Every structure is written in structure tokens, then in C-alpha cells.
Amino acid sequence: MSSKSDDRSPDAPAAVPRGWLRATIVASLAIAFVTAAVGFVAFLSQLRGAEVKPGRSADGIVVLTGGSSRVSDAMGLLAGGYGKRLLISGVHPTNAASDISRSLPDNHQLLGCCVDLDRSAVNTRSNAAETRRWADARGFKSLIVVTSNYHMPRAIVELSHAMPDIELIPFAVVGDTWRDEPWWTSGATLRLLLSEYVKYIAAEVRVRLADLGLDLPDLADPPAGAPPARKPATAQAH
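Now predict its structure.
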């Protein structure tokens, strides 16, 4: 009996660490999943389900290209007197003002007098950098920010970091797909939101580390491939 007991005894201590390690991994994964899920819900709570005009005007308006109707909505705000000038940030280098003019036939006069084109920005971080230069050059202290509702949280993170002394007033563009069906019924919309959530978290982490003096590359939103030139006023995917 004692011999049998002695044969088993060397294996008994090893079972405890293996069980502890397995429990730790499972618990860590569960905590990570719950944290990510709670964060995703918090991210979704920031997204507007309907377009709401700004409560007041600002010195300027900036629109970050890359989504449907962003530019036309920004032009509508400019025409309504919500800003003195409009910056269209992220225009493809091959697109001229005439391309935008053809897509917005009712705004020829505004395009000629009050609209600036930024062809340098290739992602959200460079959108923010170019917007800062534009606002500084014109002495603007407040901006209305126009972009898609799902992109707005990350845009505000980048813009706030680039120009903390400028007041930002969000105007979230709500696409037709968002209005027509709940996001959870569309696989494509769910994938878009999950992707944007990951980019938003990455931007938050990078900005917080930058505040501590650690400047990391923009892994969340690298320059993307150029879109077809036939689409006016479009930019690389944000």
C-alpha cells in the first residue's frame, strides 16, 4: 500500500500548478472579454443615431473625408452660416476643386470663396495635424467637426490631442444604412463598428502615452490605399 502511495506522490504536486495556471488563464480571458464588451457598449453609447445641427456657430468647419455625404453636409453647415470657412481634409491628390464642384452643383459660389482643400492628410492622425495648421494660420479658436457618427469618437481624440486649445463642436453624419436598419442586424455594419472600436482604443492608448512622452507610430490607422480618382473629394479610408 505504501509503495503504491509513494508512486503517485511525485505527480500530485504537479497537478496543482497546472490547475492553477489553467484557472488563471480562463479567468484572465473572461475578464478581458467582459472588459472589451463593456468598452464596446460605452463606445456605442457615444454614437448619435440622428443628425443634430450644432447649437451655435464656430470660427471654422472641418470635414474629414472618407464617408458618404460628409462633404455635402459640411457644405450645408457653411451655407447656413455655422462657420466662416470650411476645410475639406483628406482630399485625394488627383481630385481638383472642379471635381468637388461637379458633385455639389448648388455650392459653386461657396467653393470659390470659402473652402480650403487639404490633400496631405492620409489618415485621422494627419487629418488632425493638417487641421491644426489650418486653424492656427487663420487664428480660429473653435471648429465644427464633421465626420461619420462611428468615426467621431476617434476623430475627437486625435483633434483634441493635436489642438487642445481649440473648442471642438461635433456634427456626426448618420448614413442611410444606419437609419434604415439596426446595426446589429447587419454583419457589415457590425464589422465596421468593431474595427472602429479597436482603432479608437488604439488611438486613446497612443495619445495617453504621447502625453507621457512616448510617441508611438499610428498603428491603428496607417495610410491606406488610394480610392478611385473618379470619386470626387474622397480620401484614403479612415
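The chain is about 50% helix and 10% strand.
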